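explain this:

___
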Amino acid sequence: MLGRRVADVTVERSFPTVLSHIFRLRLAYDGADASDAPCSLILKAGLPDRPGGPWKPGQREVAFYREVAPKTPGDLLLRCFDSHADADSGTWHLLLEDLTDTHRIATAWPLPPAFDQATAIVAAQAKFHAAWWNDERLGVTVGTRREASLDAMTRQFEGFTRDFGDRLPPERRELHRRLLSSAPRLLARAQPATIIHGDAHAWNCFLPKTSSAARLFDWDAWGIGHASDDLAYLMAVHWYPDQRVAFEDRLLDRYHEVLLAHDVAGYSRAALQEDYRVSVLWQIARAICQQSIGIPPVIWWNNLERLHLAVDALDCRALLD
């Protein structure tokens, strides 16, 4: 791309999401042959008219492409050509590789992926997690370790139970209470650390139309955490029981195989299973947090219902004894 100068930019497509605005930009170049330059790019920016201003975590995604992406091996991510974040105004933007012609999303939300699509997604997650598995840079030069606030969780649970009254059955209230009381012990469990996506549903992965690699995107919730949290968010949060039961164990098997193939040692399949069950429990707090910050009920309410079904099927209450 050396010597290529963009002569014109047109907006080919533009649409808002819940938290950002996406533009597909068509580029025209001056001068000699520009066949080696991208003919289109994706501009992602905050919604300026969003109540409370632009979505501040969008600045976290800018940090991801500055801190993490350049140090991540392979082709698991989108290439970022430009990024900007202003802490005072909250404005931000990313100029990203456009994969429209070579990749696709598995399904239209909220339809779940087929098994082969889900397998490609968990393999991409495993490769990314393995690249940062117990990395000595975590929390030092890359990312910040965010401690869970039990006070905030307590306030969110109390607000949720107050707002929803008898729509929250007594047995679910009791589960929430037990989760809060067990939180210090669960948080103290020894688990390997990595960088997690934080919003790792099936629609945040581009799958190849031909033979190139799957790519993970939409990194505004990334952080240092436990890999099983991404797996629980993918499956237990978003899939109803029939599909989850049919896919879950096989996908956890595949995930573990990919970890081993990418030099992760000392982490057994049994340890993954136990961590996954704990992560399913923690996703209850995540769904209630989503309610507390104004995420639409069509998202968090259905997530919470599916989670309670997964908690029962996986006997997660036994982890609270």
About this structure: The chain has a mean pLDDT of 92.
